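Hi D.,

Good news: the full-assembly prediction came through. Inputs first.
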Amino acid sequence: MADISETRPPERPTRWQRMTDNDIFWSFIHSPGAMIAAAVTLLCILACFAAPLIAPFNPFDPAQISLWDGKLPPAWAEGGQPQYWLGTDNQGRDMLSTILYGGRLSIMVGLAAVCLGMVLGVGLGVISGYVGGATDAIIMRIADVQLTIPGILLAILINGIGRAILPLELREDFAIYVVIIAIGLTDWPQFARVARGATLVEANKEYVQAARVIGLPGWLIMLRHIFPNTLRPVLVIATIGLALAIIAEATLSFLGQGIPPTTPSLGTLIRVGNEYLFSGLWWITFFPALTLVVLVFSVNLLGDWMRDALNPKLR
Amino acid sequence: MTDLLKITDLDVEFPTRRGTVLAARHVSLSVAPGEVLGLVGESGAGKSTIGNAIIDLLERPGRVAGGEILFEGRDLRQLDKEEMRKVRGAKIGMIFQDPQTSLNPLLTVGAQLVETIQKATDHKGAAAVDHAISLLEAVGITEARARLKSYPHQFSGGMRQRVVIALALAGDPDLVIADEPTTALDVSIQAQILDLLKKLCRERDLGVIIVTHDIGVIANIADRVAVMFRGEVVETGQVAQVLGAPRHEYTKSLIAAVPRADIRLDRFTSVDYIEGGASEATRIDIRHHWLGQGRRADPSDDAMIEIDGLNLSFTLQGALLKRNRKMVHAVDDVSLTVKRGEVLGLVGESGSGKSTVARLIAGLYTADAGTIRVAGQDVTSKPNTPEAKRARRMVQMIFQDPYSSLNARMSVRDIVAEPIRFYRTTGSEAETRRIVGDLLDHVGLGAKAAERYPHEFSGGQRQRISIARALASRPEILICDEPTSALDVSVQATILNLLKDLQEELGLTMLFITHDLPVIRQMADRIAVMRHGAICEVAEVDQLFAAPQHPYSRHLLDLMPRMEMLTAVPA
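Then the structure:
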């Protein structure tokens, strides 16, 4: 047995040392794929969130948009203009700026939807696993039923209901929130299943029994002891869920069920471009689609790596 | 007599991200045909590594860095993969620790045996089947022909280990390496398996290397023994010599730490050599401390735990109809009384229901029938009166597995302070911190440990944290459920000493659960022997060891490892 007092440095490690001195971090800096994926993801997210600072144009400012400049090809193609690198869309908005602003919206919607699904799913999953019995049966059967319905159909349904109960004048303003709720409500069974599985494992461990012997109430045991220990598998699901949520937003918007076409998001841009695809205006749909693919692909790679790193037995 | 296996200056290293770890350093060993060599050491000493290195099954990225392994005159390190595979199948057999996982659950025992025989020998078809039957008979399985068609789950643990031994013998090997072959088994089965190994060794002129942490196993089976400590063989010799008159300091302290069944000692001998100079704990004056306060001023009740007619069944297989359900009677009409300040030992083999009784008293399970009274309060069902809740809080528990009994995401301070903070038993956060420090001091970890996280501690140190957490509730009753069975003997001795001291200082009432009779002899005042969920016998400790009344108690006592050859008790 390694002697603790020998191997540990005498002074207490700083928070940064503690964070970097673990197997996950070590696995990360030794996995080129994961580092590239993380770099691309970070770049996409930073660029999109810094859109107001770095975008050459503001697609929300009517003064900067001129229909005369509509449908211009990318700068390097014939007829392209140097100030519009990636060309312009049908309304004369600069593609690059529109993608940055649209990507920001897509990522925000994705993050918010995943958070909603995670809070709901993990909460229900932990309760389901810890309490057991009829509560468990009811929650998990609801999740099972929901999983039999294709996610996007369900999202369309929830989205439709959301719009129908909103008064007409509020629909545009609240469209984004409705989309977030629709995607989040579609997502939760995944989280609930994973969290329940992890809870069943953790609840049998002796530290939970020790907490029960101390006399802590159930909610405190779930919150303080079980929940933090279910986070690892949940984080993996959340990363992959983020990619899926971004796609779900794009799909909803593409189908005309999500964000109104006047607000740029990756989905609405692809939809608008799709109408012009056969007239040869490929760039309107191509660049947003490429952004979506790169973003989703790198987030997925990151999720894959994380699953392996957190569960060394899979390798 | 020439050596069957001769290892000279073997080095095994494991490259890790923190640098290379030498798991074995200049190890030299030899085994002759018909000889049992015991390889004994505590966890991490490198004893399994040696076994795996011989048959080239080191877990990656471990590798042999130097030395030679001569087997029947050939250096195994020079063989290529294919030749090595042949040696492994036909010349060297391996027996693993856990018979649950070393057999394929999807194949019949016969299929696994016949496959191995056909690969490793010239027997084919019906001859292979006949050979399989003769092997099963050799390892003591009756009706061998019929049992060939059974699946592993249809065998008990001990029978399964016999099948594993038969598999190891399938290629008619010259050397068998048994890695902790009896650790996962009950004592009664352990004795049978050891006898079988010894018999096979004599009959077939096998060389056997038995890797174990258990001095008792060595005393019973081995001819010669090699003691390992941190990757090095510190002492080799005849068993009687090494156990009776050890030369190396480590061997001496290791043997001193083995609990003795024949005599009751006041304390275990101090074994500082092993824990790397364990810091002498700053003890606190416990009676005038916070720990001693909050007790009831005048405890008049004499019986701290009274259980009467306790029953609990577990559902093995659920069904809508009651008659289709399969139940197991885990606790069958158990009645017990534990007096104030008494240590009651609860002994039994696995599945005897001893842990279930403990969990019932601690309130982790709810009884089907019967009553549990703690300090006179009925706590059988969920306590709903303030008095019953107080009584429940008097009971704290220390668990078996030091690795899963602490929440890895909380600092030691938060773990120990949890009951103090929840019940607000101190005036301020500063006082809480001071008390947590005192508790950690008292269990021998030092107050500085509070800042750290459980993964930074070894098994024995974690068990000390568990004890500090239990003390933080200011319990009057401490239930110890196999508190040392996951620990090395040397660490076990220090933890048992600590528990003994605490029991005396605080006048704790203790329920001590174990399968280990020598341990219970040192700890308990009275002993209850359990079997199949029921209590066979309750007796004073000396009386039980001197004159057991129940046949099952006698049976258990007979199975205790014979330790006569150990050194005389230091005065």
